[in-house]
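so my prof wants the structure for this chain in the tokens format not the other one, which i didnt know existed until like an hour ago. anyway here's the sequence
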Amino acid sequence: MAGLDRESTFPYAPETWSQDEALEIAREEGLEMGSDHWEELQALQEYYSRKRDYAHISVRELHDALNEHFHDKGGIKYLYGLFPGGPIAQGCRLAGLEVPAGAVDRGFGSVV
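here's what i got, hopefully its the right format
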């Protein structure tokens, strides 16, 4: 997916984000990016773009939105298989987004 037209593939991506940067972070974190990884990054970027006016992102609301978006594939449990560092914390790092407060919490299932 790297090298594709960023505007059409990742229309909600932060301006400073690049697929190459995401690939580098993934490599450093031991992830091999597949189409489902990229799909989650797109979902995170779109979610953040819709919440720009909010002072902060609710971890619970984001968790629920991801669970619903990926329901057909197994929801949040499926995403933990893709992102062992947590679909929110690790996913946000790869998507070029600020990790929301509370996302890195062993009780919430994320490990950094």
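also thought this was worth mentioning. Residues 36-112 form one domain.
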